[in-house]
Amino acid sequence: MPVGVCFKGVRTLVASYLLSDTSLEAGYVSAAKLRKNYLQRKRVKLGRVHEFNQVLEGLVLHGVLNAKREGNTLYTLNPDRPDFLTLYLGKKVRVSPGYHRSMTLRARLLALRGGIGEYATGTVSWVPWQYKPMVIMHEPKRIGLTSGGGGGRWERSGFENGGVLLNLVFDPPLHMGEILEYGFYTWTREHYARSRADALKRFGDEWVREGLEVRNEAEFVELVVTPHRDYQSARVEADTQERFTPPTGNMKIIRSFQTGQEKLVWSYHRPERGRYFIAWVPPEQ
To answer: Which of 77, 95, 112 finishes a domain?
Structure first.
């Protein structure tokens, strides 16, 4: 992750501990009091005071905590906070010489509420016809700094739009402040159009796309694509409307790539919720 991202290393552990502090649920608490609580536990190195305060302000920025200024800044849990904060979400995709698709997705989430028993994830493909993907699911990891963690298992709930629907089930349910790490890999035979003409014939659009959906509050996301060799042009597109429809060429263009790059990389610190795509035009023939 780049320098400047708030939740990394020890700061992730601080955020986890903060959410397990019951005094935040009871009312407004000062940063000094919260820090004292954790120094008494002596179970995690908290780092410098300014780092601790940066975590607090990051949680305010993401809507996890509310803050008010009364001399010192006081903090409390936001009752309208989301269920999760995405600490990291990354997707890497490769177009093989045979036009097959390999995709790896990895995520790290912070549970902002307790009692969550499942989490839906997966991939969606708008290719009108294709082979079903092969799927390898990595064992999820739960890091419970105060609760001791717990178990998690994958359930495959079906295939849809050429993608795969997956569910993570937790036993026992997640505790507030737990960190969840998960990932999976897919491989799909002959997924991609071979040329610009083939893309126009199959999709009615010369642009081929790989996307990433940001549906939680997120700290850092990245999308990495190894496209066709000799692709003609490439760009990053954004669709921040909440909809479940095929991507189109009418989305906002937020970046253009120079041609000839072997890998196309887009990353963002604290993005808006929505869908983001790396799009490229395959070779002419």
So the answer is: 77
Domain end, chosen from 52, 77, 102, is at 77
List the domain range (segments joined by +) for residue 46. Answer: 10-77
**Count of other CB atoms within 10 angstroms of residue 23:** 14
Rounded mean pLDDT of the chain? Answer: 87
Counted domains in the chain: 2
Query: Which stretch of DSSP H or E encloses residue 71?
Result: none
Q: The CATH number of the domain where 127 resides is what?
A: 2.60.40
Residue 4 lies in a domain: no
Burial of 30 (0-12, 13-18, 19+ CB in 10 A): middle
The backbone region for 37, taken as left when phi is positive above 0, alpha when psi lies in -120 to 50, beta otherwise, is: alpha
Task: With beta carbons less than 8 A apart as the criterion, state whether 168 and 181 touch.
Answer: no
| Nearest CA among 106, 38, 98, 136 for reference residue 228 | 98
Digit-coded pLDDT (tens) for 75-84 = 999 999 999 9
Model confidence over 178-221: pLDDT tens digits?
A: 999 999 999 999 999 999 999 998 888 999 999 999 999 999 99
In DSSP notation, 19-52 reads HT-THHHHS-EEHHHHHHHHHHH-SS----HHHH
pLDDT digits (tens, 9 = 90+) for 46-102: 566 677 888 899 999 999 999 998 777 899 999 999 999 999 999 999 999 999 999
**pTM for the structure as a whole:** 0.90
